[in-house]
Amino acid sequence: MKERIVVIGAVAAGPRAACRVKRLNPDAEVIMIDKDDLISYGGCGIPYYVSGDIPDEKELRLTAFKMLKDEKFFENAKGVHTLTKTLATKIDREKKVVHVKYLDSGKEDTLPYDKLVLATGASPFLLPIPGRDLDGVFAVSNLHSAIEIKNRLARGEVGKVVIIGAGAIGLEMAEAFKDLWGVEVTVLEYFSQPLPRLLDPPLARIVAQHLKEKEVKLVVNARTKKIEGKDGKVVAVITEDGRYKCDLVIMATGVRPNSQLAREAGLAVSPLTGGIIVNERLQTSDPDIYAGGDCVEITHLISGKKMVLSSGALANRHGRIIGTNLAGGTETFRGAVGTFVMKCFDLAIASCGLSYEVAKLEKFKTFYALHSQPERAHYYPGAGPIFVEIVADERDRRVLGFQAVGPMTDGAMARVNAVAKILEFKPRLEDTAYMELAYAPPFNSALDPINVVSMVANNLADGLFKPIELDEVFKRLKENDPNTIFIDVRTEGEAAPFMEKYPGRWIFIPYDQVRFNIDKIPRDKEIVLICNTSMRAYEAARVLYAAGYEKVYVPLGGMNFVRRWSWLD
Q1: Residue 297: which of 288, 287, 284, 286 has the closest Cα?
Q2: How far apart are CA 8 and CA 220, in angstroms?
Q3: Long-range contacts of 22-26 (CB under 8 A, 24+ apart)
Q4: H-type helices in 188-307, by residue range?
Q5: pLDDT tens-place string over residues 534-556
Q6: What DSSP character marks residue 156?
Q7: I need a labelling partner for 337 at 20 to 30 A (CA). Which of 251, 403, 522, 569 fits?
Q8: Residue 565 clears pLDDT 50, i.e. is over it
Q9: pLDDT band for position 569 (cuts 50, 70, 90)
Q10: pLDDT tens string 67-100
């Protein structure tokens, strides 16, 4: 008798598992079911469909060779029998059947299985506030929502949008609304910065300033209280501090794994994360049932903690592993480091591993270094700056995470990908400082930003300079600290506005003249050395240390960061 495999869920992990097992075991009977009628689509492309970059939603459901991935496609091309608008209501593990309901007819049935795959994904988390059920409140969770949002925009029904949440989806949707449709966009973020936990403040501030330049209003530390309506339709979002008029609300406040079906079937589900518990082979607590994608709990390879991770790429990898193992293979999934990349207007933003803030919460004894340099060779035409941060453990210099914000090229992603792969092998700063990376002037500098920021971190760990936060620099300026002198080693033109604003406290000494002007630098003050990247400041600091100065500080990151921070206004 043929082995029957039933797959619940037909967006990412499900189709990948179904097609993989059918290729490896052509004799298997594979049935895939989903409660929706739109299946196997690129959900991460939804913001770009709303923005108009992708003109037709069908593009998200096409193969690379332009075949529509519908029931007929999976039946004919893949040999997978597919039932859409079919809701799995119960799993009877003892009888090995799935109870289903056909949503069009209301008819109920059972599907026997030998092996079962749960690829039930995740659902958006909606804030439990009054007004969340009003007409005009959406979570970008599926293609149906996206189509309706775009239709309202096209009909001219939307002039103002409020997005609750400045995570990746929130910012992608902000761009979608602003870039093509030109509507007024306000983003409300509970935390003190955009992309919390993904980026640390030095890089997040660059994103905040960019949003401001693109006329997106970002409100941080926003406590949303309710959504106000009139005649059943949304008219405003109310926070503790304000009222924001709108015609449309997007809740981009995270997702929760769809694990209820598994829980009701008696499968092990994490009380901490809500994800289905699986082993390395992606088997649940029932060895005949596999699970993968957004609905499962996985291991963070840096912290060792359990987490759920909503990622189309992860779901597809899970699907392949499950399909292989269903066909008798022995592939395993060890975990993830949370690799992330996104487009935000003209910026590429990427990260992997732990941010400095998260590493502290996870009780690592951690520190970080910042650096900026041209993304390509500095002399190559059109090379824009990239800003990077590396996070490491003070005790053994193990690299814990890496972040990058740069131009809308592949540079930020390429660098984060390079670090992400080695993170699971517990690299030290010396590994990333001397990591071999491809070099040619149109693509890179002889020393990649990964190399340089790792060298900065090693210098910091070796005690070769004393760091100071840029926030502290400007605090001392603002408070007119009499014990601090600022030495600007850039060009006179760059230093002049600060010398005028802070006479006697901001002193210009060119980088190549520091060793010849030591007598102009007071020994009874704390000295803060200023340059654009802190590289020249570091060299000047070494000169002063050699001359017997002790209280000499180098700002982490330099003025290139400051110029891209909105709070500097």
Answers
A1: 284
A2: 39
A3: 22/78, 22/79, 22/80, 22/323, 23/323, 24/323, 24/324, 24/327, 24/328, 24/329, 25/326, 25/327, 25/328, 26/79
A4: 201-213, 260-264
A5: 999 999 999 999 999 999 999 99
A6: T
A7: 251
A8: yes
A9: very low
A10: 999 999 999 999 999 999 999 999 999 999 999 9
Query: What is the distance between the alpha carbons of residues 56 and 67, in angstroms, rounded to a whole number?
Result: 14
DSSP lists the bridge partners of residue 229 as 234
Residue whose tokens read 């289905």: 276
How far is residue 82's CA from residue 34's CA, in Å, rounded to a whole number?
8
- Average pLDDT of 321-330? 98
Helices 312-326 and 13-24: crossing angle in degrees, nearest 10, is: 30
* 361 in Cβ contact with 390 (< 8 Å): no
The residue assigned the tokens 């600007």 is 488
In the predicted model, is pLDDT for residue 389 greater than 80? yes
The pLDDT assigned to 140 comes to 85
Residues contacting 408, CB < 8 A, separation 6+? 343, 345, 346, 347, 348
Per-residue pLDDT band for 568 (boundaries 50, 70, 90) equals very low
Give the full edge-to-edge strand order of the sheet including 86-92: 86-92, 97-102, 108-112
User: What phi, psi does 149 have (nearest 5°)?
Assistant: -60, -45
Q: For position 566, what pLDDT does the model report?
A: 62
Give the rounded percent of residues in the chain with a pLDDT score beyond 90.
95
Rounded CA-CA distance 170/166 in Å is 5
Q: Give me 221's structure tokens.
A: 């530390």
> Are the CB atoms for 370 and 389 separated by under 8 Å?
yes
Q: What is the largest CA-CA distance in the chain?
A: 92
Give the angle 142-146-151 at the CA atoms, nearest 5°: 150
Domains with residue ranges and CATH for the chain: 4-121+256-326 (3.50.50.60), 137-253 (3.50.50.60), 340-461 (3.50.50.60), 466-568 (3.40.250.10)
Say which amino acid occupies 235: V
Active site residues: 44
